[in-house]
C-alpha cells in the first residue's frame, strides 16, 4: 500500500501542480457579496466563511492537489469556527483534495498523543474508536524533541498519515532561534534537519521521500538549498510564496527532477479578486474565478522553473 507521501506525490503529479491552497479566512477578507448575505454574529460569519471556502474549493479542486486550513483562523470563532473547519476539510476531501491542517502543535507525552489522535488518528467514544477530523497531514513544532514528535510518527505509521515538521520557517524573526550556532558550528535548523532525517527513516515511500516531512520557507533560498542537500528524503512544505515575497526561482532550489516540495499560497489565492493582477478582470461576485485564474498562473510559473 502506498504511504501518505506517495499519495501526496501522486496527486501532485496527477494535477501537474506542486501547490497547496491555504485557507486562512478572516472576516475582512470576505467579499462584500458574502458579507451582505450573512449577519455579523459568530455563527453567521462562520456560515459565510464556509460558503467562501467551498466556492474556492469548487473552482480549484481539479487543478490544485491540496488545501491547508490554518486552525487559528477557525479556533478564534470558538465552537462554530471548529465546525466550519471540520466541514471545510470534509468538503475538500470529498472533492479529492489532500488536507493539511496547519496546527503547529508541540507538546509531550499524552498531550501530544491527544493532539495526534484528534487530527490523525482515532479517539475512543463510548465503546468504539472514531476519527473526529480525519486529516491527511498536520504541521508540528519539534522544539520539545522526540517526546513531542513520536506520538505523531506512531499515528503516521498506524493510520497512513503524514507530518510536516517546522525546520526553517518563512517569518522574518525565524533566525532569532533557528539560525543560532551550536558548539559544532551547525545551526539549530540544521540540527533539526538531521533529526528529521532520523525520525523519518522508517516511513520512506516509493518515490524515495518520507511521510515525516519538513516545513522550509521560500523566503530564505540559501537555507532552502542547504536543507535540500541535508534532507534528500524529506518533502518540503514551502510557505512564503506570493504575499510574503518568496519567488518561484528561489523555490526551485528545494526541488529535484520536478519533485521535492509543495508550495503554499494563502492570501494571494484567497484574495486574488482584490489583487492588482485580477481586480479589473473579475468582479466581487467572481472572487472564486479570480482564485482559479491565480492558481493556474501560480502553477504555470512554478512549473516553468522546477522542471
Secondary-structure blueprint:
Blueprint: H1 4-15, E1 19-23, H2 32-37, H3 42-58, E2 66-69, H4 72-75, H5 78-94, E3 98-105, H6 109-119, E4 123-125, E5 128-130, E6 137-140, H7 146-159, E7 162-168, H8 175-178, H9 188-199, E8 210-216, H10 221-230, E9 234-238, H11 248-251, E10 261-265, H12 267-270, H13 287-306
Parallel strand pairs: 1-2, 1-10, 2-3, 3-6, 6-7, 7-8, 8-9, 9-10
Antiparallel strand pairs: 4-5
- What does the overall shape look like? globular
CATH-derived architecture: Alpha-Beta Barrel
What CATH first level would be assigned?
Answer: Alpha Beta
Count of DSSP helices? 13
User: Helical percent range?
Assistant: 40-55%
**What is the arithmetic mean of pLDDT?**
94
| Count of the domains | 1
How would you explain this protein's 3D organization?
By secondary structure, the chain is an alpha/beta fold. The chain has one domain (4-17, 25-34, 101-302): Aldolase class I (TIM Barrel, Alpha-Beta Barrel), CATH 3.20.20. It is built from 13 helices and ten strands. It has helices spanning 4-15, 32-37, 42-58, 72-75, 78-94, 109-119, 146-159, 175-178, 188-199, 221-230, 248-251, 267-270, 287-306; strands at residues 19-23, 66-69, 98-105, 123-125, 128-130, 137-140, 162-168, 210-216, 234-238, 261-265. An eight-stranded parallel β-barrel has the order 1-2-3-6-7-8-9-10, surrounded by seven helices. A two-stranded antiparallel ribbon has the order 4-5. Helix 11 (248-251) links the parallel strand 9 and strand 10. Helix 3 (42-58) packs parallel to helix 5, helix 3 crosses helix 13 (287-306) and helix 6 (109-119) runs parallel beside helix 7 (146-159). The model has no long low-confidence stretch (mean pLDDT 94).
Amino acid at each position: 500500500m502506498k504511504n501518505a507521501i506517495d499519495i501526496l506525490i501522486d496527486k501532485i503529479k496527477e494535477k501537474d501542480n506542486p501547490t497547496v491552497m491555504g485557507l486562512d479566512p478572516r472576516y475582512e477578507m470576505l467579499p462584500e457579496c458574502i458579507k451582505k448575505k450573512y449577519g455579523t454574529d459568530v455563527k453567521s460569519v462562520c456560515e459565510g466563511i464556509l460558503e467562501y471556502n467551498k466556492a474556492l474549493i469548487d473552482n480549484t479542486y481539479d487543478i490544485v492537489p491540496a488545501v491547508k486550513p490554518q486552525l487559528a483562523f477557525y479556533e478564534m470563532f470558538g465552537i462554530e469556527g471548529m465546525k466550519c473547519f471540520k466541514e471545510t476539510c470534509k468538503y475538500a476531501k470529498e472533492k479529492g483534495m489532500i488536507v493539511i491542517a496547519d496546527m503547529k502543535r508541540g507538546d509531550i507525552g499524552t498531550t501530544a498523543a491527544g493532539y495526534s489522535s484528534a487530527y490523525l488518528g482515532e479517539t475512543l467514544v463510548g465503546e468504539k474508536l472514531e476519527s473526529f477530523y480525519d486529516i491527511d497531514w498536520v504541521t508540528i513544532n519539534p522544539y520539545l524533541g522526540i517526546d513531542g514528535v513520536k506520538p505523531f510518527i506512531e499515528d503516521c505509521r498506524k493510520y497512513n498519515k503524514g507530518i510536516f515538521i517546522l525546520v526553517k520557517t518563512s517569518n522574518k524573526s525565524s533566525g532569532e532561534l533557528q539560525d543560532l550556532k551550536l558548539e559544532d558550528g551547525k545551526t539549530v535548523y540544521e540540527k533539526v534537519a538531521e533529526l528529521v532525517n532520523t525520525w523519518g527513516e522508517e516511513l520512506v515511500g516509493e518515490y524515495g521521500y518520507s511521510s515525516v516531512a519538513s516545513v522550509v520557507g521560500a523566503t530564505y533560498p540559501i537555507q532552502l538549498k542547504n536543507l535540500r542537500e541535508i534532507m534528500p528524503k524529506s518533502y518540503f512544505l514551502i510557505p512564503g510564496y506570493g504575499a510574503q515575497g518568496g519567488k518561484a526561482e528561489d523555490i526551485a532550489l528545494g526541488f529535484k527532477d520536478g519533485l521535492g516540495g509543495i508550495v503554499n499560497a494563502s492570501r494571494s489565492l484567497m484574495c486574488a479578486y482584490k489583487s492588482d493582477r485580477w481586480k479589473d478582470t473579475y468582479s466581487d461576485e467572481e472572487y472564486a474565478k479570480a482564485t482559479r485564474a491565480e492558481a493556474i498562473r501560480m502553477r504555470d510559473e512554478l512549473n516553468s522553473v522546477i522542471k
